[in-house]
Amino acid sequence: MLGEVLAVDQAARTLRVRVEDGGEQTVQVDQKAMIFVKARLRSLSDVQPSQWVRIGYVEQDGRRIATSIVGVSPKRPAKPTAGGKVVAVDLKAQTLKIRTQDGKEQTFQVGGETRVSVAGMRRDLNELKTGRQVRIEFTEQDGERLAGKIVIILPGPPVRRLPSATDEPTP
Q1: 55-69 pLDDT tens trace
Q2: How far is CA 126 from CA 2, 48, 106, 113, 122, in A?
Q3: Is 41 exposed, middle or buried (0-12, 13-18, 19+ CB in 10 A)?
Q4: In whole angstroms, what is the distance from residue 162 CA to residue 60 CA?
Q5: What pLDDT, on a 0 to 100 scale, did the predictor assign at position 23?
Q6: CA distances from 40 to 37, 46, 70, 76, 126 (A)
Q7: pTM over 0.85
Q8: What is the pLDDT of residues 77-108, one digit of tens each?
Q9: Which of 5, 32, 44, 95 is the most exposed place for a label (fewest CB within 10 A)?
């Protein structure tokens, strides 16, 4: 189990952890559990809230009993992304609307914090034009999608496979 430590109860020998799917789990820590923090053998008192840990455990009587705890580097959750064709841009209202491959429309807030790039080069919001393909990294806040990064995907020539020495000649 991989997660972020939310609480440590030394007396009860338990850890409360937020796991990758966002849920919380409480784990009993066995007296003989091997605990490593910063690559050194440690004790439960060295495990602190906000640390990321990988917990090895066994199930016993409906409880999870930790047999090993290893501190790991913080896992940064990937930002959600969306991609599609730009169908509307309103720079005064600071909105961008795209149509995804499945035909659904999504609206994003854009502004001074939004980074736009084309072919790896930073551009400004004026590069966003109807009909262009984009990929957007965003965050959700108060029910709105805030675009953090927008990559404009330039159309390219179709990819052609080059013949190899083992290909049969075409008549």
Answers
A1: 998 988 989 999 999
A2: 42, 47, 19, 14, 12
A3: exposed
A4: 59
A5: 84
A6: 6, 10, 9, 23, 53
A7: no
A8: 567 788 899 999 999 999 999 998 889 999 99
A9: 32
